[in-house]
Amino acid sequence: GFCTNLLLSQTPEHILAQSNNKIQILCELKKEHTSGVYWYRWSQERQIFEFLIFSNTLGKATYGTNISQHKFSVHGTSSHTSYSLHISHLQASDNGTYYCSVSQSSQLFLGSGTQLSVVDVLPLLSKTTQASVSKKHMRDITKSKAASRKGPCSPLIWIPLATSVLLLLLSLVHIAHRLHRLRQRLWLRIHRQ
What we know:
The protein is an alpha+beta fold. It has 2 domains: 8-119, Immunoglobulins (Immunoglobulin-like); 156-192. The protein has helices spanning 127-131, 135-147, 158-192; strands at residues 8-11, 14-18, 23-29, 36-43, 48-56, 61-63, 72-76, 82-87, 96-104, 107-110, 114-119. The strands form 2 sheets. Strands 2, 4, 5, 6, 9, 10 and 11 form a 7-stranded mixed β-sheet that branches. A 4-stranded antiparallel β-sheet has the order 1-3-8-7, with no helix packed on it. Strand 9 (96-104) and strand 10 form a beta hairpin.
């Protein structure tokens, strides 16, 4: 139930940015989507798949736990076919792979992912360094990229697992919230007596 590139396309593939700067990731839908777009981040370092923000077609945003509203924002077009995630005040903790996602018929469709790397100083590539990259090396890179993109559905194993865990955590948060409210009511009732 998890496919990429069927309903949406995501650009760019990679972003190398300097800390304290800002970037944007574009998510384009093949057709208008009535509910909105979700954004997630996979952190290789912390091994977590994290819900960042959901933006509905009216532009109303719902943020994940401990996600800063000043750091993350989503801008959509009036046609509801294009959404961009804006991340400002970049830090090393923002490193990861970002995915836009839409839900349809109980399935979660993910973009191809954008890998963000935040560094303190951007590397300067001289012309001699660029020229020294052999043609054979470039052919090998092209071949490996082509091999990794076979078929419209990438065999991503961890995405369904991580999403299931995320959904389980969200339902646990909901249950914990309801229990907390129930406990408050009980406490008020006891103290009224």
